[in-house]
Write a structure and sequence with these properties.
This protein has about 250 residues and is mostly helical. Helix content is about 40%, strand content about 5%. It has a domain at about 45-170 and about 240-250.
């Protein structure tokens, strides 16, 4: 995962396919823990790049010096139009569905700016646009993230500040999320009954019921006896929390 080595990935797949059934579970858990650590490291690196570029970019600071000297002049307007037009043509395409919500929101904001106040527009007021940070970081990769920040803040002159609300991009934080019911939980492999199972009859309450046969390694409906994993879960000291909280951000139009 960390080296993105295709050959190593094939070897891992072949190893898992040829393992005895009794050893597949610990190998799969080991693979899952490494995959989780990799995705956490990718998210931490992307968040650091996002914050660094956001802090280094100042409103209107990406324009040429002569445009910054006269931001309302014809040269500054021409530069803003050309750079924004190039940004839209590069990223607002049919082949990039991930950026569609971003551009729909940006179009609505710009439309409200030109509509008179008596017709429902913003008029002379500035508009606050609240965006999830994940839109920048996950919509279309690193290049889109950097260019979107540069155009919004450095070219168009938006100002931004963190919102008090946390992100809803995580499924667990969504108001529509409900934890899975026990009927569909796969934490334990057990058969599903159409009716309540009838308890077995006992001749003596003190005599436990013993299974008539030993559990087969491939039997998914019987619990295994407690045993230690072949491989203990790896300790990953990656220097960051795996469940990093995402945040909303308010962008104020110029």
């Amino acid at each position: 995962y960390f080296d993105q080595n295709d050959e190593a990935g094939k070897q891992m797949t072949n190893t898992l396919a040829t393992l005895p059934p009794s050893q597949r579970a610990p190998f799969s858990r080991l693979q899952s823990s490494i995959r989780t650590a990799y995705h956490a490291s990718v998210n931490a690196r992307r968040t650091a790049e996002f914050q660094a570029h956001l802090s280094a970019t100042h409103p209107g600071g990406s324009l040429m010096p002569h445009s910054r000297a006269d931001p309302s002049g014809p040269m500054a307007k021409k530069e803003r139009f050309e750079r924004f037009d190039r940004f839209v043509r590069s990223w607002c395409t049919m082949g990039m569905p991930g950026t569609k919500p971003f551009f729909e929101g940006l179009w609505a904001l710009m439309r409200l700016q030109v509509v008179p106040e008596q017709l429902g527009g913003a008029g002379g007021y500035r508009i606050e646009w609240e965006i999830d940070d994940a839109v920048f970081k996950e919509a279309a990769g690193k290049d889109f993230m950097l260019e979107a920040i540069d155009v919004l803040k450095g070219v168009l002159g938006f100002e931004e500040f963190p919102s008090k609300r946390t992100s809803t991009s995580s499924v667990n934080n969504s108001p529509l999320y409900r934890p899975p019911s026990p009927m569909h939980s796969r934490s334990q492999s057990q058969p599903l009954y159409s009716k309540s199972p009838v308890p077995a009859r006992r001749t003596n309450q003190d005599t436990p019921i013993l299974a008539k046969r030993s559990r087969a390694p491939s039997d998914p409906f019987l619990d295994t006896t407690p045993a230690y994993d072949i491989f203990p879960p790896p300790f990953v000291d990656n220097g960051f929390e795996e469940t990093e909280q995402q945040y909303m951000r308010t962008w104020t139009s110029p």
